[in-house]
Amino acid sequence: MTNAPLDRYDRVAMALHWLIAILLIGNILIAWYFKTLHGLAQIGPVQWHKSIGITVLLLSLARLAWRLISPPPPLPASVAGWERRAALLVYGLFYLVMIAMPLTGWAMVSASQLIFIFPIRLYGVIPWPAIGPLTHLPAAQMKAAHDSFAAAHGLLAKLAYALILLHVGAALRHQFIRRDTVVSRMVPFLRKPA
């Protein structure tokens, strides 16, 4: 059995889902990489990390707007009530991560004297503004703000790791244990389980 042709919601939602997923995982890998570097060697990967983070933010806002304009189709009837509630919670937490993580990163770099030396330039080309009020804080307040945003960014990264594992685990459960159609809604080439 093959999937029915995808409707407009499915195509847009699927494209945003996979694009954000690839960028988010790529950005996690870049963060792990630049943490192994020292000094000036970090600059290039950090700049890419900022660019990808802002891109994830913009795409996540677009995806959220798309969900509000065009709600997703309902889950199959075979999905239990507790699974529906768990899915809603995980989706909500993913949106929190996809929006708050780039925002805390943006705030963190804005609350650093380095913003004047290494301004945000998306992909080395497009200037992106710093958060103005944070760039004008007195030194001690700027450091405190930077440290607070860095801590929040780190906690959100840990939440992202947990959510990714939970999401992949649930997808594998639906595909190979439950053998329902949930995963085939977001993987265009996947055949629905027999």
How is this structure best described in words?
It is a single chain. The chain is mostly helical. It has a single domain (8-185), classed as Fumarate Reductase Cytochrome B subunit (Up-down Bundle). The protein is built from five helices and two strands, in the order αααββαα. It has a two-stranded antiparallel ribbon. The N and C termini lie close together (8 Å).
In short:
The chain is mainly alpha-helical and 194 residues long. It contains five helices and two strands; from the N terminus they run H-H-H-E-E-H-H. It has a single domain, classed as Up-down Bundle (Fumarate Reductase Cytochrome B subunit).
Order of helices and strands: HHHEEHH
Q: What is CATH's topology name?
A: Fumarate Reductase Cytochrome B subunit
Distance between the termini: 8 Å
**Number of helices, where a helix is a run of at least 4 consecutive DSSP H or I residues:** 5
The secondary structure category is: mainly alpha
Q: How many structural domains can be distinguished in the coordinates?
A: 1
- State Rg: 19 Å
Overall pLDDT metric: 91
Low-confidence regions: 1-5
Largest sheet properties: 2 strands, antiparallel
Task: Report the CATH C-level class.
Answer: Mainly Alpha
Give the helix proportion (percent range).
55-70%
The second-level CATH architecture is Up-down Bundle
Walk across the major sheet and give the strand order. 1-2
Number of strand segments: 2
Characterize the overall form.
elongated
Give the percentage of residues in beta strands: under 5%
